[in-house]
Amino acid sequence: MKNKVNLKYMKCTMQLFSKITFFTIPFFFLKISAQAEIKVNAAFLPVGMFNIAAEKSLNKNFSLQAEGFISPWKSFAGKNLQIYMGTLEGRYYFKEMMKGWYIGAYGSIAAYNFQKWNYFKAEAVLNADGSPQLLADGKVRITERYQKGLTFIIGISGGYHFTVNEKLGLDIYAGIGNSQSIYKGYFKDNNQRYDGAEQWNKSGETLPTRGGVMITYKLD
């Protein structure tokens, strides 16, 4: 019963976060005018993931960007890959606003239901004494594992903004950040906890957390 409540809570959290992301960014669009751009990440569109952003200048060299990322896939190539993330980034352009090299600092929050890279492979489930669990037919129980949780990220970024014409441009960027997560781990064959904990697990790591090629459109 408790597991069903937790699953329902996480599902509601992800749905709420996706709505906040998509309603906040259009609101940001309505507030922007001169020296502003809207963007879409071309790198993720072919695989059905959506990364949209709006960047607004604050002065000659500084800008603020609001960004949303959604991967709606309950199953992608057989793996859990649902991610709902919002990011706020401050940028400093070395020469001219929204042209050339820049550096930035960003903060992100994400709700997810996915499989970490080191859990892609199905493995045997072990009993407390280390022996493999057996199914009713006598075969060893083998299954994948996945995680559900929330992540908070603070990082630094850098990139180059190309100008194609008066309206269009390309924003190529990458970022590395420190990620602090709270999550719960589940067996994929029965959706029961694999980690033996009743509450949230915690983890932290520093790794690349964002990047891509944004197609940009300048607003007048």
Supply database-style keywords.
220 residues; mainly beta; 8-stranded antiparallel barrel; two-stranded antiparallel sheet; 1 helix
Q: What would you note in describing this structure?
A:
By secondary structure, the protein is mainly beta. Helices cover 14% and strands 55% of the residues. The chain has one helix and ten strands. It has one helix at residues 2-31, and strands spanning 36-41, 50-57, 62-76, 79-93, 100-114, 123-124, 142-143, 145-163, 168-187, 201-219. It has an eight-stranded antiparallel barrel. The chain has a two-stranded antiparallel ribbon with strand order 6-7. A hairpin with a 4-residue loop joins strand 8 and strand 9 (168-187). It is elongated and about 70 Å long. The N and C termini lie far apart (55 Å). The model has no long low-confidence stretch (mean pLDDT 86).
The gist of it:
This protein has one helix at 2-31, and strands at 36-41, 50-57, 62-76, 79-93, 100-114, 123-124, 142-143, 145-163, 168-187, 201-219. The chain has 220 residues and is mainly beta.
How are strands sequenced across the largest beta sheet? 1-2-3-4-5-8-9-10
- The level of helicity is 10-25%
Low-confidence stretches: none
Proportion of residues in extended strands: over 45%
Integer-rounded radius of gyration: 21 Å
Quote the average pLDDT.
86
SS-based structural class?
mainly beta
Succession of helices and strands: HEEEEEEEEEE
How many strands, which pairing sense, and closed or not: the largest β-sheet?
8 strands, antiparallel, barrel
Amino-to-carboxy terminus distance: 55 Å
Could you tell me the number of beta strands? 10
Total helical elements? 1
Overall shape: it is: elongated
